[in-house]
Design goal:
3 helices, mainly alpha
Length: 60
């Protein structure tokens, strides 16, 4: 494997671990309940939206 392949592989593992931790967090669960998603949205999409909204809030 090249160095970039190794970096991508470990980065992917890091993202998966982070995503799992976020999905289990109380803040994410409260946010998800408040959003009341009616359309089927993947965990990946929900985590990205949660992070985007959280960072936008922190930016203010």
């Amino acid at each position: 494997m090249t160095k970039s392949t190794l970096s991508s592989a470990s980065g992917g593992n890091t993202w998966e671990a982070l995503k799992k931790a976020i999905v289990k967090s109380s803040g994410f669960l409260r946010w998800q309940e408040a959003k009341n998603f009616k359309v089927s949205v993947t965990d990946e999409e929900r985590v990205r939206l949660y992070l985007r909204e959280t960072l936008q809030t922190l930016a203010y």
